[in-house]
Amino acid sequence: MMKDNNVIQVENLSKLFGDFAAVNQISFQVKAGEIFGFLGANGAGKTTAMKMLIGISSPTSGKATVAGFDVYKETESIKKNIGYMSQKFALYDDLTVKENITFFGGIYGLSKKQIDQKRCELVEELGLQEVTNSLVASLPLGWKQKLAFSVSLLHEPKIVFLDEPTGGVDPITRRQFWEMIYKAAHNGTTIFVTTHYMDEAEYCDRVSIMVNGKIEALDTPKKLKEHYKTDTMNDVFLKLARG
Amino acid sequence: MGITISNISKSYGEITALSDISFDVKPGELFGLIGPDGAGKTTLFRILTTLLIADNGQATVAGYDVLNDYKSIRNSVGYMPGRFSLYQDLTVEENLNFFATIFGTTIEENYDLVKDIYVQIEPFKNRRAGKLSGGMKQKLALSCALIHKPKVLFLDEPTTGVDPVSRKEFWEMLKRLQKKGITILVSTPYMDEAALCDRIALIQDGNILEIDTPNAIVSHFPKPLYNISAHNMYNLIESLTNYEHTYSIFPFGEFVHYTDKRDPIDKASLKTYLEFQGLTDIKIEKTQPTIEDTFMELAK
What we know:
The complex is a heterodimer. By secondary structure, chain A is α/β, with parallel strands linked by helices. In chain A, 37% of the residues lie in helices and 27% in strands. In chain A, the strands form two sheets. Chain A has a six-stranded mixed β-sheet. A four-stranded antiparallel β-sheet of chain A has the order 2-1-4-5, with helices on one face. In chain A, a hairpin with a 2-residue loop joins strand 4 (61-66) and strand 5. Chain B is built from eleven helices and 14 strands. The longest helix of chain B has 16 residues, at 164-179. The chains are: A alpha/beta, B alpha/beta.
């Protein structure tokens, strides 16, 4: 049964490459407004799972809905109802701040009037007034990542997928970024985030840890620490992820 | 036979990448260069490995001058750049063989040095480097940087994007290499790795903020630091940001790290203020600063 307040519903989802099960029968739900941490070692299957959820890779078997849409048949609707940003690709370096906002607003189907309004709000909020006509390439990484996050929220998606959004970012900006995440979640946006920073795992409402294609643990950081009898998420991760 | 750096500066057009940097790395030391992207770490690595010429200043590596003795340096150092730069279309074994050959040695001659690391990728020795996973690429790159038995090893962000388990294993490998007498300069954006170095330099915007042992750097933190938690993290951050006595406040895992303008702090009034903001389950406890706290205080 799909409950109304589950924005992501996954049941026995698998993806095989030949004989290799990159994702092996995973099941979980994410509630509206939740900050959900999706953790795992390199090669555990996180990226493959995420690709299925954002509608760019078709599962081998199992069921899943994202924002109420089926991951097999309604991938276009999924793409319109989610935001996505990653460290590797977020914005176009050779477009200005203004051009990037206009471009992504257009992609997400906003009207010119909506785009203008959103752009003013966003520039104001991030304090980017001085650099609206500068190329994104010239911005510090931390600014880029904050801008990219705001751009992924332009069309007010129900859920936003963040793939290692803070890799290499300085510690202060990394925290400002998380304050933005809290704010978005507070306003009802569901956050699905991957990270290799274990202190960031603590910022999540719930955390799943993938090992060799399976979800080996899923709970609040507090309960996971209690269960594995450790003080930090880093130790929880080390205990589990050796596989 | 370590590294000496005196007043090194480097600019790219109007952008200053390094601004009058000086420090030494002692022979046999495991020295960490800790800072975010854009701090100038890679520029310094490229100057020390003779791939880039500084605008000003002098530097020596293993006793050789980076300008006059650049050929000797290239024979004496191993360099693992931040971006994977092995030959993608050569196999694991061919890559290692290639690097051994251009340095006039063989895999067999120095196998002892790379053995610990190489055995982990040896089962895949006939696989092309481009087809390896991230963790395996990292191990091959380190093997290739070591195969000519360098005196000094330069590792530019070897663990960026690497999961905590592999990061831990990588640092255990570095400790073993250090025991074999190799001087290691390693950069990382992960502050928790800083604690594993003998000494560290905190670097931001081309300037060194501080150089010392990890313990000494942490002891320089200027104020008493408190862990604060409550039932709602978002409200807690908002409330503390607007509190008149707040000196600094940073989310830190399950807690907020807080310092107060007052000395001493008035815990009771702080708690009352937070309760008045609608927060419950409030805990305020003194805690030890970390390198990350110190970095943020210095970078403010």
